[in-house]
């Protein structure tokens, strides 16, 4: 619990730093208020933003590696950090500049490898999913199970991730060419989310089965 507490403190602080940077950029490029179509960032600012986003992911990975001892434990800490960071980024923006006024307002979500765009509610749903999965894996370790996802879990997660990423990047041209984006593909988000939770169910079943076999072998010895 102490690790989780300080991870939350770190990610909430990091989310505030990111929110502050975005506020400064919006004051420069959107003095009348942020809205689509987007305005093109200067080459200097765009380079800095891409580097900052990459550094943010490396920071989350570094903290997760430091806190965990096994791969899936480290992965859990990473997605927990990511989830809290993503959620509280919008919380801080709302506190500081009263934005977004609605969860269906559009935002630029990420820039690597192409611009991700979509309504605020979409990344928030994904963030909550990350928290659920991350805490579930940690809970399994807490009660003595080694997390062992099955092949079908890997396939489902890959398919779900592809569906969600496509929902964010399908209309990247709207960001690159300063156009009004097409309606968001909510069905792709829903499909991705369902695949994630089905994958988690298969992973849980495989984990309990593998651990049961392992304990049986140990007992026989």
Descriptive notes:
The structure is a single chain. The chain has 221 residues and is mainly alpha-helical. It has one domain. Helix content is 73%, strand content 4%. It contains seven helices and two strands, in the order αααββαααα. The chain has helices spanning 2-29, 43-67, 71-97, 121-142, 151-169, 172-176, 186-220, and strands spanning 106-110, 116-119. A two-stranded antiparallel ribbon has the order 1-2. A hairpin with a 5-residue loop joins β1 and β2. α1 (2-29) packs antiparallel against α2. The protein is globular. It starts with a helix and ends with a helix. The model has no long low-confidence stretch (mean pLDDT 94).
Rg, Cα atoms, Å: 20 Å
Q: Which structural category fits the helices and strands? A: mainly alpha
The number of helical runs is 7
Please tell me the total number of domains.
1
Q: Biggest sheet, strands in spatial order?
A: 1-2
Overall geometry: globular
User: How confident overall, as mean pLDDT?
Assistant: 94
Q: What are the low-pLDDT stretches, counting only 5+ consecutive residues below 50?
A: none
Beta-strand residue fraction: under 5%
Order of helices and strands: HHHEEHHHH
Report the end-to-end length measured between terminal Cα atoms. 35 Å
